[in-house]
């Protein structure tokens, strides 16, 4: 007979977050050793890996506090919006100060971060303003956040230079 007690005791969210963080760290090393001449990709990999490490560390520190949260449960999803926004701003500012042209993979990472921010804002609206205990968007949010993180890792690790504008210009109907 199979006992599923240990299966239900695992915190799968914790495992997924740490797995994605480890992938960001390994991707940063891949970018450094594989794409030595691409400064923009290195900057993006460092900033995104640092962001995920620091946000996971900050989130685990928040769980240790006596109340279990730093700014209150009504600001939980807004914290993640702030992390994503600061990541984009920091990466953009480093590119700007170093006068480095953005790699197409970094630009796509910005776009994916904006998708994360939009889904966090939608979750904030549903959880705080609507106070809905269950909604169809909750599992969609979880999948969206993890998939966009994996896509960002994929963009950096494989040096993807795919451009949205190129795609539309290739497949124009006229």
Shape: globular
- The residue fraction in helices comes out at over 70%
Main sheet summary: none
**Rg estimate, integer Å:** 18 Å
The share of residues in extended strands comes to under 5%
Beginning-to-end CA distance, first to last residue? 63 Å
| Uncertain residue ranges | 1-8
What is the N-to-C succession of helices and strands? HHHHHHH
Per DSSP, the total helix count is: 7
Q: Would you count the extended β strands for me?
A: 0
Average residue pLDDT: 81
Helix/strand structural class: mainly alpha
Kindly describe this structure:
The chain is mostly helical. The chain is built from seven helices and no strands. It has helices at residues 5-9, 12-34, 39-64, 76-98, 104-129, 137-157, 164-170. Helix 2 (12-34) packs parallel to helix 6 and helix 3 runs antiparallel to helix 4 (76-98). The relative contact order is 0.13. Residues 1-8 have low confidence and may be disordered.
Short description:
The protein is mainly alpha-helical and 174 residues long.
Helix and strand topology:
Elements lengths: L4 H5 L2 H23 L4 H26 L11 H23 L5 H26 L7 H21 L6 H7 L4
Which key phrases capture this entry?
174 residues, mainly alpha, 75% helix, 7 helices, disordered N terminus, globular
């Amino acid at each position: 007979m199979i006992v599923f007690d240990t299966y239900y005791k695992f915190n799968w969210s914790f495992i997924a977050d740490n797995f994605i963080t480890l992938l960001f760290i390994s991707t940063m090393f891949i970018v450094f050793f594989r794409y030595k001449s691409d400064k923009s990709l290195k900057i993006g990999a460092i900033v995104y890996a640092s962001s995920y490490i620091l946000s996971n560390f900050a989130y685990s520190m928040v769980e240790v506090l006596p109340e279990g949260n730093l700014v209150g449960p009504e600001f939980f999803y807004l914290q993640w919006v702030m992390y994503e926004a600061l990541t984009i701003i920091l990466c953009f500012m480093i590119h700007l100060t170093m006068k480095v042209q953005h790699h197409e993979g970094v630009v796509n990472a910005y776009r994916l971060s904006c998708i994360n921010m939009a889904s966090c804002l939608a979750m904030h609206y549903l959880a705080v303003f609507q106070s809905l205990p269950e909604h169809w968007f909750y599992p969609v949010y979880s999948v969206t956040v993890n998939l966009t993180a994996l896509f960002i890792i994929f963009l950096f690790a494989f040096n993807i230079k795919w451009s949205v504008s190129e795609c539309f210009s290739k497949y124009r109907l006229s």
